[in-house]
Amino acid sequence: YARGFAIGAAFFAIVVGALALSGQLVLGEGGAASAGFAGVLGSFVVLAGWAIQGAAEEVVARGWLMNVVSARSRVWIGVFGSVTFFAFMHGLNPGIGPLALINLALFALFASLYALREGSLWGVCAFHSAWNWMQGNVFGLSVSGGGESGPTLFRFGLSGSALWTGGAFGPEGGLMVTLLLL
After folding, report:
1. DSSP string covering 110-139, please?
2. pTM for the full predicted model
């Protein structure tokens, strides 16, 4: 679990670093931990929610659906079903666009392969939770089009082409995430 969490956090930090280096990430109003100690503490409290949310999605998409379909047919059909279900599940999120759907499918493919490689859901559950927490409550960016997700350590904004930044959907809808997942 710890390894999965660290990998998920590092992956999203790479996205933020690439956006910063390309000039498409700006420090937003309030800057670092504008809510003080309560904001810092609050961002860690919210982590428990992300741990439940990320694990729930992984248990349904990879732990149940992928495995049931794979057991009744072939593994690649189970993976395809899991990828399709995961992208569809997020398909009505605010700000969704074609690239965001592609990235959701790429994330689901990555998560499926990660779970198969590990032979366990622990790492991918932690990866998913860390990814969402880093995005929303460490960097203050929109998570899958959901807007702000509570207290945050830093408040960054996206500036530049929506093709690269993901626009209203957040970084998950942009080319930086596409490149990382590929």
Report:
1. HHHHHHHHHTSSHHHHHHHHHHHHIIIIIS
2. 0.91
